[in-house]
Amino acid sequence: METISQESPQLSTKDIILRYGLIGAGVSILITTLLYVIDYTMLFGGFAYIGIVSIIIIGILAALHKKRSNNGIISYGESVSLSIGSFAVSEGLATVFGILLYLVIDTSLVAKMKNLQMDKMDKLLSSGALNKEQYKVATASIEKIDTNSILFYSLGGFLVFTILVLIIYLITSIFIKNESPFKNNSI
Fold first, then answer.
1. pLDDT band at 184 (very low <50, low <70, confident <90, very high)
2. 33 lies in which domain range?
3. What is the pLDDT of residues 120-133, one digit of tens each?
């Protein structure tokens, strides 16, 4: 009979990035799929950010995993690189899924999104929140949205979120880091 050791083999940085990146992507894709199945209009509101938040948290968990498996020692740079690396894998795969959702899985989703936005503009016009000129500009902008726009916004969103998340990880890594007391701090 084989005994199970309490210690798991230490994962390399690349392995942790890939493991947590794939977990984050899976969670985000699952959330996106659930939102789509429950009510596709939820994809265009605040609920869509649940996937991003989960990926951010999973990036932090990647750094904590490395710290825990390394006897509580992790450098600031290693914490940031693990977090942003797992985020990049997760968000990259989630972005690809989002593009596939719009361009392959449900090609009518762009039209549905435009109709939803037009309905919102109609409500804003009727409530007096928009004047007729603002309404014309907004509706003209909405009408221009097509599959190329979705591709552009998806890739642009990936870049913008990566920059914002880097800032978050730069801050959280201050609290995660725990430098080795034996590190050479010569000037």
1. low
2. 13-106+150-176
3. 989 988 998 889 99
